[in-house]
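Hey, resending since the last one bounced:
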Amino acid sequence: MTSTFSRIFLAAAVLFGVSAVAQTGSPTPQSDPKTLPSAPGIPATSPAAAVTATKVGTINIQEAIFGCNEGQREMQALSKKYEPKSTELKAQNDELDGMKKQLNTTGDKLNPDALDTLKKQIETKQKSFDRSYQDFQEEAGNAQQEAATKILQKMAPMIVKYAQDNGFSMIVDTSKPWPQSPVLWWGETVDITKAVVDGYNVQSGVPAPAAPTAAKPAATKPSTGTGAAKPASSTPPSAPKPQ
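The structure tokens again:
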């Protein structure tokens, strides 16, 4: 099940705030009708020549939120919170795998009653696992979205101010690659993600979280890579997917 974290929602929240830049910025120069040529056959001034060039910036909202110190701290806390449930789901999944292997390797040797019993046990345990896994993903996703929203509420005004101070008329989110997003390409010179993360770390006063002291099983580690600058996913705890 994919993460319930919505980058579209986050992007919309930021772009809504950043749109104020265009509204509060200097007005677009308008041509004075008196200066336009009145003689027929003489073209009027091209509209493009009268419009100030628009400076567009980019930001990876997901990376900014979960790459800042506060975001990494929140991810570590969620990973620790959901680690027991992730471990429990892994155990259930391992048990199911064992029963399915038994069915595949010895099913033809079992009598009809034993075979039917094994199949029913697998079906029952699979349904139970699927429900538990779905509940786990939903609860963890909601918890992460809540944490992300809390950080974004404090980060968004800083993004707007940075855009205004640096002459940007628009900031677009690049959390999703093209063609999932309309942004085909952008250069590093217009990306403000690192600047926003660095500024937010100073503003929040949250120190960089300490790196994990010991490696944990893959199924219980946060898939975002706690302590990393670029999270690989937005789901904090990882658990086996339903078979």
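The two ends are 12 Å apart (CA to CA).

Sorry for the duplicate.
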